[in-house]
Design brief:
Elements: H1 2-9, E1 16-18, H2 21-26, E2 40-43, H3 47-60, E3 64-67, E4 82-85, E5 93-97, E6 102-105, H4 111-118, E7 123-124, H5 137-143, H6 150-153, E8 160-166, E9 172-175, H7 180-187, H8 192-205, H9 207-216, H10 231-235, H11 250-253, E10 262-269, E11 271-272, E12 278-285, H12 288-300, E13 305-310, H13 311-317, E14 336-343, H14 347-363, E15 372-373, H15 377-386, H16 388-391, E16 400-401, H17 415-428, E17 433-438, E18 443-450, H18 455-474, H19 493-497, H20 499-512, H21 555-559, H22 580-585, H23 592-605, H24 615-621, H25 629-633, H26 640-655, H27 659-665, H28 667-674, H29 678-686, H30 688-698, H31 714-720, E19 734-737, H32 741-745, H33 748-760, E20 764-766, H34 775-779, H35 783-797, E21 806-809, H36 812-815, H37 821-825, H38 831-837, E22 841-843, H39 844-853, E23 867-871, H40 875-879, H41 883-890, E24 896-900, H42 919-928, H43 930-935, E25 942-944, H44 948-958, H45 965-972
Parallel strand pairs: 2-4, 3-4, 19-20, 19-21, 21-22, 23-24, 23-25
Antiparallel strand pairs: 1-2, 5-6, 6-10, 7-11, 8-9, 8-10, 12-14, 12-15, 13-14, 13-17, 16-18, 17-18
Helix pairs in contact: 7-8, 8-20, 17-18, 23-24, 29-30, 33-45, 39-41
């Protein structure tokens, strides 16, 4: 019945609504431990759509769950109703007033992008969550978010001036500061709006209620307090407390988690942009308690921020490709690091401040290393800190740091004693907790390590929560500092504020939302906090036979490393590569998180013998470009390209391999067969008529140009060429050239230049018979066939490669298979060899840079001519942190100026952009940053792109020719 009603609702909406199982599963979780399958998922286009949804909810007695980025940690956006996702269409910045310092936005505006917009106006919205590059203002208001800088900027509540919203009867309201007369006028309204004003007047005018609220809510001195509805805040406004600020229902809406009204617009206060220079004092400690006591000293010197990371977080950063580079300031193995930010009118003032802090800490025997980080390096430190949540999931196995007591806040002077008591409780359970985050304001994110798949773990989840709630009450603290109550902490609100006050909260919910349509089961009347969890007690990990190895874990455990933190939802404006399809579509289903969700849901609950045999997984995986960005940019190090390849192999086992996939996977063999008739082949694919027929047969987009085949292969040229450049000379060293299939058959001129370039520089280039790389087979999920090639190549090079004799290739995706896929793909007896030679398989740029640093290559060997170069990096080079190396070698000629294009994936991704159904998405990705930047360049500027598919995409998208970095250096080399 309800499905039929939803079908009737769909055409009435300007946006979309989905009720299929696939979409519902994608929205069954957020970044919390909770899971509940919703009735449907809606993307409203405007407030008329929201009004229709409210009308529908009232009529059919279903609930609406407002959602933005879905990064909530207490289950706020998990429920059985209709998830209403405003992140796709409610994304406009509506108005800015630079004289009065405010901005008006829709709830789907991303926090960091708001500040990008405000920067030219020298304005700034302060609250900064660790998820700020994808967290949206609606969610920040709903949770009353704070962030690392709350010592200075407070929470979203302090910045929210006005809110436009729809009430549960569909009526539109505007909440703002009211004078006494205006407040009473609202109370006289004969409407739901009037009713909520009359109710709050009656409630907060009651002296008994006032006493209960002031006696039992958390200490007012605690900046971070999000326990229940903020009636304690409203009580401290005029007309209830004389001389205080005017009454404003925005204080109540902030932190109400979408349970009272549906927000459509928000007016925010924004302050002047702080232009003072700042520095980060990153103090290292031998114990956690030392860090907490030192925090009190740091606060005496008026910092902007004081954040803590413990040894567990720091240990996790070692295993993450992206974050391991950001550990540059860490010395030794500290038990904790305190990151304290100070500003000053100049660097000298910063130095004076930090010297005083260091001196006082040392006088108290606190801290052993005091590095000061300045300039651009500060961002790297903050990136490391912000990755904390995701890094916690980067733990093999089922024991995970869980969000259960991760949001407690106490007065900062109580923090050392509170944490000591806290850890004593955990010791009783033989548990350890991760400690990190907001030391400055008395809130550390504390995560005990628990296996929620077991009955014992499920019960422990609740026992720990209850015992810590009692401890927080002992310190008159707040069980939630910024993450909200949701369904995680709602059960304990009566304990925290007393039964009397809890009844007041229930009255508020009943008055505002009498039919319970707005996000029920959050804050009040919540189910038991250890019910509706993502993992069921007693859940068994299904044994799945895989082709890849997953060290120290299973396939499904690797999937479960995704904790939903949503790093894959950042837009192209925030930089990085993950996730290119989401950046273009802005659809949740195109995120890495969605792919992990569908894999976890379908495989865990599959009744099929082959758990990969699900069309739903195939549909969600379809727009994964296998760019490898998630391997490094996801703090949890979820390697979706690897997971997708494994899925495809399993799916093919059940359904067969499509002809196009088989042909693309074997493009190397097919090209080899065509090479003897290269002229004929090129004529056929180059002709508009016959080429069009070929593309239709292959399922390629007509707009694409099929790569031509060279008349002579690189390998044949190599065997025939005279080694004039090294004849009679002692080579600097020998280097193997991996003659990959793309360079051997298609990019032969590039291969020739690479070989000659190395020889001219004095290197002996060796080329031995070897197998194809298997890159195309890997991209299409033909893993067993790729495994054969990996075995052959590892066996061939096992005794050839070492620290003195390395191997290079010009195509990054092929040579990096040795470092990436081969290690987990080869037969067991070859694993040791694969791991041993992996570090010696280099992109040619890496080899050049190593030799330049060793003094074997110098700038004097290259032209002094001035040139400007725009560099678009290959996705896999970015994933391995190698883009800087490409930039550095292009700048070896003294007057070559190199600038990175801040693009992610180009959109081609091997065969992805050729496939007709993916062509539009491919070009949309290119249009985000890459194409506009290339089109805007000067005529003289050179475009550099190491990847063959990237160069093809640039040509197809802009008609510009991009060069491989080696071609640029080859041209720059003096004769």
């Amino acid at each position: 019945m309800i499905e039929e009603e939803l079908a009737l609702l769909a055409p009435q909406l300007g946006g979309e609504i989905y009720s299929d199982e696939k979409m519902r599963l994608l929205y069954a979780t957020d970044a919390s431990a909770y899971r509940e399958i919703p009735l449907a998922v809606a993307y409203p286009r405007d407030k008329q759509d929201i009004a229709l949804l409210i009308q529908f909810a009232n009529k059919h007695q279903v609930s609406l769950i407002p959602r933005t980025a879905g990064t909530s940690l207490a289950g706020q956006v998990v429920g059985s109703g209709i998830v209403v996702d405003v992140s796709k269409y409610f994304t406009s910045i509506l108005e800015v007033n630079t004289e009065e310092n405010w901005v008006r936005v829709q709830p789907g505006v991303i926090r960091d992008e708001l500040n990008m917009f405000l920067r030219p106006h020298q304005l700034y919205f302060g609250p900064e969550t660790s998820t700020a590059n994808r967290a949206m203002i609606g969610g920040m208001v709903g949770n009353n978010s704070c962030g690392s800088n709350s010592l200075i900027y407070g929470s979203a509540r302090e910045h929210t001036i006005e809110i436009k919203a729809l009430l549960s009867d569909g009526s539109e309201v505007e909440f703002k500061a009211l004078s006494f007369e205006e407040f009473n006028e609202k109370c006289s309204l004969d409407s739901l709006e009037g009713k909520i004003y009359k109710h709050i007047r009656t409630m907060l005018s009651n002296y008994s209620n006032q006493q209960e609220i002031r006696a039992n809510f958390p200490k007012a001195a605690i900046m971070r307090r999000n326990t229940g509805y903020a009636v304690d805040m409203l009580l401290e406004t005029d007309p209830f407390t004389a001389g205080k600020e005017p009454f404003n229902f925005c204080k109540l809406i902030c932190g109400s988690e979408g349970t009272l009204a549906f927000i459509t617009e928000i007016k925010l206060h924004v302050g002047p942009l702080n232009t003072n220079p700042t520095g980060l004092l990153c103090v290292h400690f031998a114990s956690l308690q030392d860090a907490l006591h030192a925090n009190l000293i740091a606060l005496k010197h008026k910092p902007l921020v004081s954040e803590l990371m413990d040894s567990y977080i720091l240990e996790r950063t070692k295993d993450n490709l992206e974050q391991s580079k950001n550990r540059f300031f860490v010395e030794g193995e500290p038990a904790a690091v305190l990151i304290v930010e100070y500003d000053g009118k100049d660097q000298d003032e910063i130095f004076r401040k930090v010297e005083a802090v260091e001196a006082e800490m040392r006088a108290h025997g606190l801290g052993y290393h005091f590095p000061l980080v300045l300039g651009a390096d500060k961002k790297l430190v903050w990136d490391l800190r912000k990755a904390g949540l995701g890094l916690l999931s980067n733990v093999p196995g089922d024991d995970k740091p869980v969000a259960v007591i991760e949001d407690t806040a106490v007065a900062v002077e109580d923090l050392p004693a509170y944490i000591a008591d806290f850890n004593q409780i955990l010791e009783k359970y033989n548990l350890y907790a991760v400690h990190y985050a907001h030391a400055a304001t008395g809130e550390l994110h504390l995560r005990p390590i628990i296996n929620l798949k077991t009955e014992a773990g499920n019960q422990l989840f609740r026992e720990i929560a209850l015992e810590i709630a009692h401890l927080v009450k002992k310190y008159n603290g707040s069980l939630s500092g910024e993450h909200g109550d949701g369904r995680l902490r709602g059960e304990f609100i009566p304990l925290m504020i007393g039964d009397h006050n809890y009844q007041l909260l229930k009255e508020i919910k009943q008055t505002w939302d009498p039919r319970g349509i707005f996000n029920p089961g959050k804050i009040v009347d919540t189910p038991s906090m250890n019910s509706f969890l993502r993992y069921e007690p007693g859940q068994q990990n299904r044994a799945i036979k895989t082709v890849f190895r997953y060290p120290n874990q299973t396939y499904i455990q690797h999937v479960e490393q995704c904790n939903g933190s949503g790093d894959c939802r950042k837009s192209h404006l925030s930089g990085g590569t993950m996730c290119p399809s989401y950046m273009a579509s802005k659809n949740e289903k195109d995120t890495t998180r969605a792919r992990a969700n569908i894999l976890r849901e379908m495989i865990t609950h599959s009744s099929k013998e082959n758990p990969f045999d699900h069309e739903e997984i195939k549909e969600i995986m379809d727009l994964c470009l296998s760019c490898k960005a998630c391997k490094s940019e996801c703090p949890s190090s979820v390697d979706m390209a690897k997971l997708k390849a494994e899925f495809l192999q399993g799916y093919y086992d059940a359904n067969g391999v499509p002809m196009r996939s088989r042909m693309i996977g074997h493009v190397d063999t097919l090209t080899q067969l065509m090479q003897p008739v290269a002229g004929l082949y090129n004529a056929v694919v180059g002709n508009k008529l016959t080429g069009g027929i070929v593309k239709r047969i292959l399922g390629f987009a007509q707009q694409r140009h099929i790569p031509r085949i060279a008349n002579k292969t690189l390998r044949k040229w190599y065997t025939q060429q005279d080694k004039d450049y090294i004849a009679g000379k002692q080579p600097i060293k020998s280097v193997y050239f991996f003659c990959d299939e793309f360079t051997n058959f298609n990019e032969v001129d590039l291969g020739k230049k690479a070989v000659i370039f190395l020889e001219k520089l004095g290197y002996q280039v060796l080329m031995v018979p070897h197998a194809f790389s298997g890159r195309a087979l890997l991209s299409k999920g033909l893993l067993r066939e790729a495994k054969k090639l990996a075995n052959r190549n590892v066996a061939i090079f096992a005794d050839r490669l070492n620290s003195n004799t390395k191997m290079v290739a010009v195509e990054p995706s092929t040579i990096l298979t040795f470092r990436d896929e081969y290690v987990d793909l080869v037969d067991e007896h070859l694993v040791e060899a694969a791991e041993r030679i992996a570090p010696f398989a280099l992109t040619i740029e890496e080899f050049i840079w190593e030799e330049f640093q060793a003094g074997n290559i110098s700038s004097s060997q290259f032209t002094a001519e001035e040139k400007e170069i725009l560099l678009h990096g290959h996705c896999q080079q970015k994933a391995w942190g190698l883009l800087a190396t490409v930039n550095q070698i292009l700048a070896i000629p003294a007057n070559y100026k190199v600038k990175n294009i801040p693009s992610g994936c180009c959109g081609m991704a091997g065969s992805f952009g050729y496939e007709k159904e993916h062509y539009e998405m491919s070009m949309q990705i290119g249009e985000l940053v890459l194409f506009p930047t290339v089109r805007a360049k000067s005529k003289e500027t050179i475009i550099a792109a190491p990847g063959a598919s990237c160069r093809h995409q640039i040509k197809d998208g802009t008609s510009e020719t991009a060069l491989h970095p080696v071609e640029i250096l080859f041209q720059a080399l003096k004769n």
